[in-house]
């Protein structure tokens, strides 16, 4: 018998009472929270449609809004709303259209461009906007201390590269001249058919000298001139608020030369890193436009024939690099076998799903009329034969091979599918290795990989932008592949061609050489994927996925029409 | 004294039998705990036999089939690669259970020893040891993992190490708290006055009496270790596709919970089942290992 | 009490120093640099960048100058968010994260203590089993699952609450607070149940009943104080955990808090930001542990007097 | 006229292992102004009886199976919770055994005192805080708290044990109850304090005219205070009657056994003291840092638990060490055994010096000297069976090997009077007395020469106490042990020791041969101590109380 003396307690009969006092506290707290939530039933989209505010899902938080420091797509969106270059692009065809320059002439040798700057173009603080701004801006862009990763965009300009690399010291020798306040003359080193396109790239946008110098030296990184309240631009909108990781707000710029045609009053850019969340925000009416769509959601929207779904080809290629210096991968028959046993049709249809097109060449087809050679289609039998020829009949003796990819669910899915395809068609063992982004970059550039996932997004629409990746020892080559004839074609022969057609033929020849050797396995051509509320008008999908914010307007009233994108 | 080493080894053997034998007898009367144990054993057996009894290959894809809801062919449906979910859950269980048990065991051993030593000796040693725990708590875990990976390469052992390295900290704190209250108990003083060495006292008198909270914490740790494994695998430290684990399956299932709910539900059920089985077993074990609970 | 706190803070100095040192060399030895990018960075650019952030100096020199800056409260410039200082970034994220942690703590305490106390009043009955099973699930329910579930139910289907944001749309703070607070609510439920069960067997509870006090008074006045001491000791680590562990919730709900900075910084190899956040978080952890210890002492008159006496 | 009339009370405990009849068919009545003592050993059901009246038992497992308890014509066993609160607040109050645990450590005593007044269930009787405070301070004054006004806001830990019990008494009286239940109110107190408290209760009973139910295991205490006595054992009433008839003319076997078990009189055995000093302690000091006080010059002030004690113990001698709580008697014992670090002084075992030896060097000595602890619940590892507990020292010190350990353990169990069949049981499965037998077995397992017994029988019932004392005497005899016997209980020390030392505040105030010291105490402290011992004889005891 043991009743320890401390068990004589009586459990309450009035539990309800006690818990109710406690519950009261909780309820009060809950009530407070709910009360704050009962303010409005209108969502962002509805409010935005009323007030002319566009809610834009912008991917990640921009790291800088300095056009000569920024490098990413999210930065691009914001910068292109607050700044403008000499030349713009038609939002459908991407053909050059006048922007700050109302007109321009090109010399017969295609080397000298003369731009006539609008007299009514102003900086957002009211300063006048002149040709000298461009000379100064590009001088700044070419200062090595600034650490401009896009300095090479200016290299078509005569002597720009030499100046940047310190071979010449006098900037006057660089081919940029302000003939007068409103006339800018640019001399190129070689004829560059895509030069006008470059002018719409933010790295060639003008920046406001006084503002920059007010906050630091011209070539100093990370000054506060890009903050809200400080930034002076020349675009249709001006920066009014920047809350890190929360939102960036741009307001209509009344001093913009074309202000009367700008219909939006305001754009709010949200950093939406998490695609799944972004999609939910869209569904809850918190966003007009998303940056992306989760792959698994695409089918749902497709089945619903949801008008919000916008899929379009995008100027980028998803491919695998093959490290040529890996013994068993140095045999080009092996590489070709690998390429031929990827069922790209099935992959794009079943895994990536967003209307991406299978890629059989590194250059996206249709790039300003360029059609790359396409010969290595899906041919498992031929691949098996090639592998046998290389000494691995039925995959026997083929060393275990690793696919390296950076940590990401989408990359993983593709790697898993390809792993299985190679296993099935070639009977070879493939392992997957994912590394965190920076580690992956380090491994890849150090050549410490066998097969590695890669992607390339074009900065401008020209095959050169893709093909000059694989020059001998190029910083973006990373495969160890080197072909002097290829280099000569890209660097010397193509630029010297007189006609567009001849030039494209040279590119085709070069690309054929690349594909024959297969140091890269092209997989698919990217597609831009966005969900866009039907109230957003004048948004047109294009190859560069570049919106023209000045043209967009919101109309929540008009009946929803089925939009067909292609 | 010359028999000392011999007699100590005998003590160990005796120690092993009694408490655990009695615990087992008591456990066998606790039906809930037995059910938990049964489920765990079943899961382990299924995991062991998976290569022979799995209905499909875990890596064989059927891209055109894609994700399909449960059907007669695929009882638990298929994933987006057209792979049989039942098979993948079975294979995933192998990884998850192994990681869960081994990594927790690593954390358990380090945590108990660390906490017991710190708590028992107290004073400056305790202060230093607990400051080390503080420091480890504060270090950026992700950088640590990435570095581990780079220095040692990819290795399943490393996974255990990494998980153990995180989970033992809390365990050490719990055990330390327990030990500090135990070390002033009279039976410890009695053991001390018998001339037992400190190590023997820690091992025979202190640690067995900390088992209650340790077991409860352990049952909570195993599921969270399984989810941590998914995170580490995602970072590239753990297992690599096409292999999978419950944690990874759940991780992916969350992404598609609206479109393909079965990709979340079934691995989730597997994990929850383990969780509850562990919980019941843990509570049962705690009671069974505490002789005092038997008569009330 | 003051001297006690001072002593504890003094002890924290070497801990912080070791944390800074280890983290410093850890991040610098991690592969990949802050300026590595998808597109190859020209060597001259890289050189310019490294020169600007003193990365071209010997490691020990960088370390010493960093230490010097930290002592002065300057955590340096962020490498990645060009133009922002680490102090500024922490300043931008802290109010949000602190607010989130605070609400989550309210949820955790409110729900946890209610459930724990309710369960402890009738142990081993349904009134005990149901909240405790829920707690079990709550502990193990990862927030990456709970968050989306709540969003789908309350944000998408019922359309009661916003699915993301923080302070942008009314009510957008509710779901994140619940998501973050749930795991802690579950822990607190278990702790308070355990604490209450122990206290309810104490003689002084019986005394209180024998005095003719009503049950609510017995629970609220006599039992809670002692029964919640385990919870109070848990508050420090919990708050630190809430602050540091909010990353997942911040990502799910697009909340501009510190957690996202921290993880992004780690991925970006933003050395100064990683270090700064680590220093900041360790300091917070130390302070919160101290605060919860002080609260526990303050709640216990005997300890309170001993501490006061030692002053 | 009976204020409380209990008839046929049955309280059963429904546990997983069956039904325990804690109280079985108990009937009694208490008159106004009368003191009823309920006497019994632990587990006799005496506390359960009283708690069931106030609905203070945990349900489950307890269940009241039958009976009535009429208080003022209302049955306490069936009344509503509200009525019960009413009774608790107005009519019946309880003083619990341990004032240390029965007061809420988190609240000031003032707050706890006034609670029944400010939370009174009857709204019209709720008093304001200030009024309640006045009443409480007046009562505190009445129970002998000095400076009640400022002590009102102190916490329980700031009071000594005796003062705390005074607070408890004030708390019980604050509602002006008509029935006061005292549950072993002095058991946790030192004898001198006990005497004061008993006197206080007696006085208050007379001034407040309350009926008292006095629960106690101590017949000496009961003898002086009770009008009527109820003897309980195993849930049933064994005998009931007025005090004198129970003490002088008891017919009941159990009552007789209880009375006989009270240790009294001198040691019966011959002394076997040999003229050889086994233990020599000279100028021993054990000081601790006082963390509760301010540091002076960076150092804590010292608590002088043992302050310059010198003593010798001869081989074969049993030295009784007597002191009240806080006198440093336990610390002295532990200091001699080198279980706490000595601040100064020398301890010799035979010819060898123990002080200054490292723990490793002490190991062989540990075998030769052992300790028996006070609390048989705390001193046994709850997760080790009897076999493990007893075999551990045997194996560790190489006194047994694998083959013969079982038989050695069996022998030990025989020696301390435990059935061999209990070898695989855990401590909690035993009663207190049996546990103390295990602890004694562990102590003698190593065949020590010297044992310090630290209050080995204080936690035990009186009948068990007698058995254990006899066991100890037997073992001292058969094993040629030398012993230091620490106790607060003078009767026990007298019963067992050859020589006695009185320790007060770390200093030995008096020492001498047991009977000599008893007959002629010199020190006033010793005199007071001896005077305070209750005597299990109503007439003598009443006279003793009168004389204090």
Automatic annotation (TrEMBL), chain B:
Similarity-based family: Belongs to the binding-protein-dependent transport system permease family. OppBC subfamily.
Membrane spanning residue stretches: 31-54, 95-120, 132-150, 156-175, 214-240, 260-282
Phylogenetic classification of the source organism: Bacteria, Pseudomonadati, Pseudomonadota, Gammaproteobacteria, Cellvibrionales
Species of provenance: SAR92 bacterium BACL26 MAG-121220-bin70
Main subcellular location: membrane
GO BP field: peptide transport; protein transport; transmembrane transport
Name of the protein in question: Oligopeptide transport system permease protein OppC
Assigned GO CC terms: plasma membrane
InterPro entries: BP-dependent_transpt_permease (IPR050366), MetI-like (IPR000515), MetI-like_sf (IPR035906), OppC_N (IPR025966)
